[in-house]
């Protein structure tokens, strides 16, 4: 269902192509380097990174065999497969003998138990002077209890950034998703899933997919649309004692 829902929005986060390109330009090394995506899914962040940095090498970690197969096929199609290594395992259990110049994690904080534990995991993989690129939710407005139970107990934007800084990180860039980006993401996901169901009425999963698309669309419009926001940060470690 997730693969189908993200057919028109492979980044799987509420960011448009220009925002993704700007974050990658700010976060990636100019020449060479190694990048790791914790919870890479179909690998779209890594594929775009490899496309804009010919000397870059990348590794992705995810528990979904289907998503990793999708990443593998897309990497071959785009001519970057020889610079990509994919690991089928839990991101929180991944171990590497070598550190990475950039660690990515967008929309995967739930796997680690939240934003700060995700940053702690990223720190373990980061080379000196490296950067973390991370995206997670926050509350733009006070949420309902139903929204909290549905999406998580986020803080507001200022508190979210303050907590990141208190953990020893310095933001060097960031992006707050616009209303257009947030809405475009939701329309794309649940519209793609609904259209697939309508186009495949004989498929045994068709009715389930159509029901899921309707449920997710109603939840977005009625429960969290006015409250949920998404922030992307480019971070470096704050020097000890600073």
Q: Give me the Rg, rounded.
A: 18 Å
Mean pLDDT comes to 95
Distance between the first and last residues' Cα: 46 Å
Spatial strand arrangement across the major sheet? 3-2-1-4-5-7-6
**Overall outline:** globular
Largest sheet: 7 strands, mixed
| DSSP strand count | 7
Strand content: 15-25%
Uncertain runs: none
Structural class: alpha/beta
How helix-rich are the residues, as a percent range?
40-55%
Helix count, per DSSP?
Answer: 9
Pfam families: Methyltransf_31 (PF13847)
Organism: Streptomyces cuspidosporus
Protein name: Class I SAM-dependent methyltransferase
GO molecular function: methyltransferase activity
Topology record:
Layout lengths: L1 H4 L11 H11 L6 E5 L5 H9 L4 E6 L2 H14 L5 E5 L11 E7 L8 H11 E14 L5 H7 L5 H10 L2 E8 L2 H21 L6 H19 L3 E10 L5
Parallel strand pairs: 1-2, 1-4, 2-3, 4-5
Antiparallel strand pairs: 5-7, 6-7
